[in-house]
Specification:
It is built from 6 helices and 17 strands. Strands 7, 8, 9, 10, 13, 14, 15, 16 and 17 form a 9-stranded mixed beta sheet that branches. A 4-stranded antiparallel beta sheet has the order 3-2-5-6. It has a two-stranded antiparallel sheet with strand order 1-4.
């Protein structure tokens, strides 16, 4: 029989300071001002909480306080598959991040697509980010051959018919050309298999290279291909906000 885990209670101001909200003294002032809640209940100085099971908020904004939950931003290179294991023995994104603690990719980038991939063991956040009902924007930059024809841009915005249903871009922006190459920014609210590639093919835009540069509020920045970094507390809070997370804390997978 499994034994019940002892609660890991700590003073709330210590939890907030560890999460990078502010100094311990400033966190005490936040609590004294009635701006801090645990599981929806405003707390006072001296209150304790278990950061692994309880939700701590400041001004209603969820705090990244659970030390068991890990959030990594990876710049996935082309040629690497987004799976935990690969029966064909190809390199996977798991080869690029530490083996422990175990994390899992959120959604999928196809083998030839580069760019931003989030890996985490926060199952609740991962499910919401990946589910189309939460309409979290995914921003891609495509390098195409030739110009971004206005008729093709209009078709992407109006919606194109794919074999698994219609697909529509939220926005399309011409980022400029050099020679016969053009960069086009495309924003989608979903992420079906090879969706951007299929949409560009449907409107006659010859794709040469594709990278995802943003998911909701999270930007790829200047991280090098094949490298990763942990998310900051502010970035995790922004992702929580993007998917409406403010309730029960999920356990690490």
């Amino acid at each position: 029989m499994n034994q019940l885990r002892e609660p890991r209670t700590e003073r709330v101001q210590k939890i907030l300071a560890a999460a990078g909200i502010a100094s311990r003294r400033a966190c005490e002032e936040l609590i004294a001002a009635g701006r801090v809640a645990v599981d929806g209940e405003v707390v006072t100085l001296g209150a304790k909480a278990d950061p692994t099971t309880q939700v701590v908020t400041v001004d209603g904004e969820r705090v990244h306080s659970n030390p068991l939950l890990v959030y990594l931003l990876l710049n996935k290179p082309a040629g690497v598959v987004t799976t935990v294991t690969d029966p064909q023995g190809r390199a996977t994104v798991m080869d690029l991040v530490p083996a422990t603690p175990r994390v899992y990719p959120v959604g999928r980038l196809d083998r030839d697509t580069e760019g931003l991939l989030l890996l985490t063991n926060d199952g609740e956040l991962a499910n919401r980010l990946a589910h189309p009902s939460f309409e979290v924007d995914k921003t891609y930059v495509a390098q195409i051959r030739g110009p971004a024809r206005r008729s093709a841009v209009r078709a992407l915005l109006a919606g194109v018919e794919l074999d698994d249903g219609p697909a529509r871009a939220r926005s399309v922006r011409d980022l400029g050309s050099a020679g016969d190459k053009t960069l086009v920014e495309i924003v989608l609210a979903e992420g079906r298999k090879r969706e951007v590639r299929r949409m560009l093919e449907a409107v006659g835009m010859p794709l040469e290279r594709l990278a995802r540069v943003r998911i909701g509020p999270l930007s790829l920045g200047d991280i090098a291909p094949g490298k990763f970094r942990p998310l900051t507390g502010a970035e995790v809070r922004a992702l929580y906000g993007a998917v409406g997370l403010g309730g029960r804390r999920s356990a690490a997978s």
